Amino acid sequence: MSFHSGFVCILGRPNAGKSTLLNALVGEKLAIISPKPQTTRNRILGIINVPKQKGREAGQIVLIDTPGVATPGVHRSGSSLGRKMMSEVRQALEGCELILMIVDAKKKWDRDDAFVLDLAKQAGTPVFLLLNKIDLLADKSKLLPLIAQFQTLHDFKEIVPISALKKKGLDELLSCVLKALPNGPRYFPEDQITDQPVRFMAAELIREHVLMQTHEEVPHAVSVLIEQFEESPRLVRIAAVIYCERDGQKAILLGKGGQMLKKIGTAARLDIEKMVGTKVFLELFVKIKAGWRDSRTFVEELDWRRQLQQIGGPPDPES
Ligand SMILES: Nc1nc2c(ncn2[C@@H]2O[C@H](COP(=O)(O)OP(=O)(O)OP(=O)(O)O)[C@@H](O)[C@H]2O)c(=O)[nH]1
Ligand SMILES: [Mg+2]
Predict the structure, then answer these.
(1) What is the CATH number of the domain that holds 253?
(2) C-alpha dihedral (65, 96, 4, 50), degrees to nearest 10
(3) In the prediction, which pLDDT does 319 show?
């Protein structure tokens, strides 16, 4: 019996729906979602084990969600954070067997999409084009001309209309992906769905609620670091710091009489409890770290892969 497997990179501009697709395909919330661009900052693995079905071989798809690709010069792409996000995208592209380039079917193709396509072309890897958000297309007859138009841009291996949000077209997509992957091993144990540590996912859930509750520059100026994470059978104790860059942002995050921080904390605690399956005691602090997005050292501190590497020994000088 043949077994298909491989690494599949989800690539696209900010807000195209990459993380929504990852969660929908894996069937678990692995990545945070928000209507604000540049929500995802790290590459996120999602592992799917596909059982053998009629007309479909068994296999394992290792999806990699990536930060939204920003065209140089926009979205502070030159900051340390921006550079780090692009390096996460490049690492995901390296060595993957297939690229799922995702675009918003409602939006006109522009230079940001062209920049993403160039990246995919440079990788020299087969590309599927996913036309996402088709639930927003009132007139579905527009899809065929749209597909014909996209066919002129690149020799896409497949063009698949989907709705990541409404979970439309995903079964067909999975079958196409599996077919496109080579025969290979099971890379991860069958019960593993991600490589992210729980404490990092907890930090992300806190950041998701900051993204939901705040506006303009605040969400982009926020990062979350877990300072304490103690697990016991019936309770997880977490202390986390929400970093922002300025006094005004801190005031917004605290809110009148601390109301905003309380709201973020309660909502995040409920989500973390759902994830860990026990009660959670969550303490949140807000601190200012001026210009952290331009600090390479601090941006590296936010990278859990790097943190693990440091615990395990000195970092590889090549990385
Ligand atoms: N209507 C509709 N909305 C969608 C669909 N997929 C994603 N969205 C919405 O698009 C917004 C962005 O979704 P994300 O999954 O966070 O997008 P992303 O590409 O991961 O964005 P970044 O991490 O910022 O690069 C959210 O408000 C989603 O709910 C879809 O199929 N239909
Ligand atoms: Mg995302």
Answers:
(1) 3.30.300.20
(2) 0
(3) 42
Q: What is the pLDDT of residues 272-282, one digit of tens each?
A: 999 999 999 99
Per-residue H/E/C for 241-303: EEEECCHHHHHHHHCHHHHHHHHHHHHHHHHHHHHHCCEEEEEEEEEECCCHHHCHHHHHHCC
Tell me the pLDDT of the chain averaged across its residues: 95
| Same-domain status, 162 and 227 | no
Of 11, 13, 20, the residue with max ligand 1 atoms within 8 A of its CB, to mutate for a pocket test, comes to: 20
Please determine, for residue 210, whether its predicted confidence score (pLDDT) is greater than 60: yes
- This prediction has a pTM of 0.96
Range of the domain at 250: 198-312
CA 20 to centroid of ligand 1, rounded, Å: 6
Strand spans (E) along 162-234: 223-232
Q: Do 211 and 302 fall into the same domain?
A: yes
Closest among 306, 52, 29 to 178, alpha carbons compared: 52
Query: Residue 238 domain-assigned?
Result: yes
Q: Are residues 173 and 270 in the same domain?
A: no
Between the alpha carbon of residue 58 and those of residues 5, 181, 226, 251, the distances in Å are: 9, 11, 38, 53
Q: Are residues 208 and 267 in the same domain?
A: yes
For 101-134, what is each residue's pLDDT tens digit? 999 999 999 999 999 999 999 999 999 999 999 9
Q: Find the CATH number of the domain harbouring 68.
A: 3.40.50.300
E-strand stretches of the chain: 3-11, 44-50, 58-65, 98-104, 127-132, 158-161, 223-232, 235-244, 279-288
- The ligand 1 atom at the shortest distance from the C-alpha of residue 37 is 24
CA of 176 to the centre of ligand 1 (A): 22
Ligand 1 contact, 165 CB (< 6 A): yes
Q: Are residues 121 and 245 in the same domain?
A: no
